[in-house]
Amino acid sequence: MTIARRPGPLLALVAGLLAVRRILRLSTGTVETVPLEAYVAAVLPAEIGAGAPAAALEAQAVAARSYAVARKGRHADQGADLCDGVHCQVFEGLSRATDATRRAASATRGLVLVQGGRVIAAPFHAVCGGRTARPAAVWDDEEVPDLVPVEDDACVASPGARWTFFLPRAQLPGLAARLGFPEARFLEVWSHGDDARVSALRLAAPGGRSLVVRAFDVRARASEIWGWSSLRSTDFEIEERPAGYLFSGRGTGHGAGLCQAGAIVRARRGESRAAILAHYYRGVVTVPVESLGARP
Ligand SMILES: [Zn+2]
Ligand SMILES: [Zn+2]
Hints:
Radius of gyration: 21 Å
Largest sheet: 3 strands, mixed
Number of helices: 9
Bound molecules: zinc ion
């Protein structure tokens, strides 16, 4: 039998109050040290919007805190824990916090999402469009939680739930060049993941050469060229037309974890923070970080 060494309640409280995160400010290269709870209140406006209903703000606060705890030291090479951009969580300074976001942080103080005894780097996104994605299908380079894709009827009427993007044939080689295959003149869906999103596309050149590329990479390169509102997600169909390719898709963002648009609609319907978290993070429990015996 092993005896877990856990801090006493007072020690845990002090550790929680003292928890800080070092945030790398990408525009200046400086590192800002901020209290964890103040950080959570400050990221909510940029991540879900300060005007979201309380239960949605609180669900987002638990997710953002979990991410900050799980990814502590992600930027250790630069002397920081997290950066202030979309790579980690968008942080535009402590002054961005509002009364509503401070209330959401305070109502969930110390609460984190846990799976298999570990705090998860809880993913979240703008709109899933009807069904969430499997995290392992989105990221293959970092440890991600094992979340079951879930149906979501709450966000389907939200902005960004449905989209189209037309890729002119003449611009395909430019996109393909960024994927290492500038000779490409044709494009098609190659495979789907078990979350029903496109997992790979096939680029083909005249003469029969072809290259299979990850849909996640195609979306990332398209975003670099045409902005985030081009290929908004990897949940799409492609229709070939004489002048190019018409993408028709669902959702905006990677699609894994909490759907922010869905969380807002659910909160307006009267669902609680706990119900929202249970829907998007199935098989995950919400516990006080101090109960894990680790310093947050
Ligand atoms: Zn980062
Ligand atoms: Zn959704």
